[in-house]
Write a structure and sequence with these properties.
Keywords: Cell membrane, Membrane, Transmembrane, Transmembrane helix, Transport. Residues 74-276 form the ABC transmembrane type-1 domain. The chain crosses the membrane at residues 16-34, 76-97, 109-129, 141-161, 182-207, 257-276. By secondary structure, the chain is mainly α. It folds into two domains: 6-67 and 235-276, no CATH class; 72-217, MetI-like (MetI-like fold), CATH 1.10.3720.10. The chain contains 14 helices and two strands; from the N terminus they run ααααααααααααββαα. The chain has helices at 6-37, 41-44, 59-66, 69-100, 107-119, 124-133, 151-162, 166-174, 179-190, 192-207, 211-216, 225-234, 254-270, 272-280; strands spanning 246-247, 250-251. A two-stranded antiparallel ribbon has the order 1-2. The two termini are 32 Å apart. Mean pLDDT is 80; it is low at 236-249 and 283-291.
């Protein structure tokens, strides 16, 4: 075992200290939001830096969940994240698998068309007119269908499928599987690390959808969570429709309400990471082919 020299020890400990400082700087804003959201609004209004929940209270969360708009918007964001991610994975992986098979007719021309879409974007107005002509304005599908896939994601997953030995597919065909069965029963199970990674990217994109919602959703009853948060941040009140800051004699501080809303919007997507982390480092072909 190599014994570290004095200079290597200094370098290693300096790196560790630097990483710890970067971690603290990165985590502190979320920690501060957490502390303020559980702090008594009367204490927060006095000013000063809050390093721990003072006068612990759940009134901020109780107020948020008692308003019909916020829980509804959170449900809409969950719906977009779940349905959108599932459809995006199916569409992207199916197209990538088809393009990874060299026997596919017109494969090169389709790849060129997809490459063209990554180099030249149609622009904002053509996208809006397309969504409008499809009758998707004020529909949640306007936030899902235009973002189902992208040329970049298709190329990345296709490259991943290209690395899977063709002997697996040939063995499945000999056993009587068609292309759909091979894709569903062989390719997808072996691609869990890639699917987990792209699924996480898709979920974050749908959960944080904002600009498309501003363009296509005019009915505030269908606003996703990020749009409601934006409205809360620019309004002087604690809800998109306006309201008092006093409720049954209880002080309701707009800043505390906003902190609670930000925390509620952040925690669900953070909870997804632990469930997908194991797939990031798992070997894609471990145990699939034995010598």
């Amino acid at each position: 075992m190599h014994k570290l020299t004095f200079s290597e020890k200094i370098f290693e400990r300096t790196n560790m200290l630097l990483l710890v400082l970067i971690g603290i700087v990165s985590i502190f804003p979320l920690y501060y939001v957490f502390c303020v959201s559980f702090t008594d609004p009367a204490v927060y209004l006095k000013g000063g830096l809050i390093l721990y929940p003072q006068g612990f209270t759940l009134e901020n969360y109780r107020y948020l969940l008692s308003t019909p708009l916020f829980p509804r918007s959170m449900g809409i964001s969950v719906y977009l994240a779940v349905i959108g991610t599932a459809l995006s994975l199916v569409v992207t992986s199916a197209l990538a698998y088809a393009l990874s098979r060299k026997r596919m007719l017109g494969r090169k021309y389709i790849l060129l068309l997809i490459l063209f879409t990554t180099l030249f974007q149609p622009g904002l107005i053509p996208n809006y007119l397309l969504v409008k002509d499809l009758g998707l304005i004020n529909s949640l599908w306007a936030l899902i269908l235009p973002a189902l896939s992208s040329g970049w994601n298709v190329f990345l997953i296709k490259s991943f499928f290209d690395s899977i030995p063709s002997s697996l597919e040939e063995a499945a065909v000999i056993d009587g599987c068609n292309d759909v069965h091979v894709w569903w029963r062989i390719i997808l199970p072996l691609s869990l690390p890639a699917l987990a990674t792209f699924g996480l990217f898709f979920a974050i994109g749908y959960w944080n959808v904002f600009f498309n919602a501003v363009l296509y959703i005019n009915d505030f009853q269908k606003w996703p969570l990020q749009l409601v948060l934006r409205q809360m941040l620019i309004d002087s009140s604690t809800s998109a429709g306006g309201g008092d800051i006093l409720e049954e004699g209880q002080i309701i501080n707009p800043q505390s309400i906003k902190m609670a809303a930000v925390l509620i919007a952040t925690i669900p997507i953070l909870m997804v990471y632990p469930f997908l982390q194991k797939h990031f480092t798992k070997g894609v072909l471990v145990g699939s082919v034995k010598e």
